[in-house]
Every structure is written in structure tokens, then in C-alpha cells.
Amino acid sequence: SGARELSELQPPQALTPQQLFELREDGHVLLDVRSAADFGIAHVPGSMNIGLGGQFAMWAGSLIPLSASIVIIADTGAQIDESVVRLARVGIENVKGYLEGGVESWRAAGLPVESIEQVSVAELKEQMANSDLQIVDVRRPAEYVGGHVPRAVNAPLATLQKSPLPLEKDKRTAVICAGGYRSSAAASLLQQQGFSNLLNVSGGTGAWINAGYPVESPATD
What we know:
This protein is of the alpha/beta class. It has nine helices and ten strands.
């Protein structure tokens, strides 16, 4: 019968930090729609980052089950409204609520936050001197074989939830994509899987190449 009219969607309920804390244990998807930088500074533990500034609807449709109950975490009411509409366009209509006051209200309530360090490609290159650094490239395989950061293993974002990485979860792990958007989403998923020392590479492989740093490809591996 197709999707419902947007006017038929129930507006999401405002949730206090304590209400959200209790919902975390009920299998709700906590969807943080802020930028990678803001998500990296502080976010609700267990939340997924799919920023409104990128291919939001496509990745939400790929990573979130249609039947999932969703709570939006955003900075403004406009972001919440935009999220609901863009989710509905890909058939995701079960937005139950949003965190009233955003992450700041969560912190003000004394509840714990997590963070993901954001690093530039120059900082990544410096840290690659550490042989323990793990690098995960979450682009599509075709992008990866076209040229990737040396030592990076390919784990496409679209399959990251279904194919756990054969990496050590306590080791420093840098996550990279083309520009820093997909890698933030991937880092949030890896954090859910127990990776505890994550870096998100701002600017991604594009910035790495523009800086003149070496890449590997099947011809050079």
C-alpha cells in the first residue's frame, strides 16, 4: 500500500535524559544526526552517527532496520524535523522520540558520554610510525582498490554490522573513508562493538592524496 503521507506521521516525543537512559536498554536505535566533529567531542554511549550533512537517508536506510524504534539526538528542533522527514522518505517511520536539549542536557544530568578523537591526515601519518596502529578503510571495495592509505584493511560501511572485524578491540584504530562522513558512522558502530581507542580521520583519503602522501593499490601492494 506504500508509505503513509508525511502528515500522518506521529510527531516524536520529547524525552528527558533519564527516559532516554532507560530506553537505551530496550533495543532502541539512538540516532545522532550531528556532524562528525560534534559527535566526536561527546555523544550518548551506544549512539550511531549518521550526519544530516551527508547522504543521510541512504545510509540510514542501509544501516537501520525498517522496523527499528528510533530516538533522534540533535542540536535543534529543525534538525529533528528534517531527520523525521528524510527518514520517512526511505520508509523509516518509527521515530519514537528525541532527546530534549540534546547532548548538553544529557551531560547536565550527570550521565556519561563517550568521544571519538578526530585527527587530520597529517596526524594520521605521524601516528602510523606506531606499528600497533590499526587502520580501517570503510569505503566500497572499488574505491579501496583504486588507492588506499598504506596498511589499511577494507571493511565497507554497508557490511560492518554483519561482518565483525578481525582486529584487536583495545588497540588504537583509525577509521577512514573518502571524506570523513562514512568513517564517523563506522566509528560509532565499531564503538558499539567494543572498540575502545578509535580515531576518525577528518578529510579522509581525499585529504591524504591531496597532501601528497603515498597510497597503495593492487599494483603497488
